Amino acid sequence: METEIYLDYAATAKPLQAAVDECVRVLSEDYGNPSSLHRKGFLAEKLITASREMIGAALGCKSEEIIFTSGATEADNLAVFGAAAAKKRQGKRIITTAIEHPAVAEPIKRLEQEGYDIVRLMPDQSGRYSCEQFAEAVTSDTVLVSAMWVNNETGLILPVTEIAEAVKRVNPECLVHIDGVQGFCRLPIVLKNSKIDLFSISGHKLGAPKGIGALYCKKGVRIIPQLLGGGQEGGIRSGTESVPLIASFGKAVQEASSHREKSYDQACGFRELFKKLAYNKIAEGDIKLHGDETVALPHIMSVAICKIRSEVMLHYLEQSGIYVSSGSACAKGKQSMVLAALGYSKQEADETLRISFGHDTTNEHIEKLVECLYKGMDTLARKR
Ligand code: PLP
Fold first, then answer.
1. Which residues form ligand 1's pocket by a CB distance below 6 Å?
2. pTM for this one?
């Protein structure tokens, strides 16, 4: 069997072995309900506490500020709807960006249909967002600012801690939510020193199984629960906790955060190697890296291959065991709103591949990728 070259980490990471082992072990051995009063329940509760502490340490916050959810989609929905409901008497204005993931964009669209006034900020010509933009948009009746930390399609980094400070200077009562999914364990953050109130993360983007995530909710910040029931997770998110997934999430976070700096340097190396090999082999103008790499996460590259639709190239690469995305995996077939907001034409967006690196990526993977892209361009161009 040919080796698999998985370069789609922004869609989901290859699971970390320590996370898989913990998940399976807890599933078969520590199966108690954490709410039960006997020893089995107590052991399950202990695993949740340990995971909460590991995640709190990686986020630089108190463990009690972590609310486990079924993933970042739920965390984002809880943050947006929960904050809007808690602040409904203070106002109906929300500031967000035009490049949010649907897990934020769709709940906000729902609020717009219900009468909220929504401001979707656009990036500047170089694709950047500034704190001033946010500060200028915030008014006394703004109840929520929701912005992503790292864009899932292009890797663009937003200065979220500075944005939160700028927002609070104008309106200290306005809640700040950050979708931290793509930046968590890849970039440093210390939430306790920040003005960020709510911060969403997802397990499967860093090597834990799918179906687990969390919302950081700063101590003293009130949001209205969206799931009612047994009152788990401090009453904010009812439902019996998935102990195997939570324990596994903690292990993945512990491992990923301990390798964060090394993984960042490696990703910079992969991006440089890709550029060197691609520009060497592929004619200038036939390949284009989107965005300004001085404000982008090196783990995510958005690359346009001239005159070849990304889906066609994606399936060509797949034949050689190489897995990448066309734009964002979550946008399946839909036109990318993000690339449009960043000023790319429909044709450029259609030709854009997302290549993303993670813990098993090697230089050989990058060499094989460039080789196959080069061959693919030749083969597919001849077929046209
Ligand atoms: N937010 C961002 C930026 C993402 O990239 C994703 C996943 O693609 C999500 C939210 C949703 O996360 P989950 O798959 O855990 O629901």
1. 71-73, 76, 101, 103, 148, 152, 179, 181-182, 202, 213, 330
2. 0.96
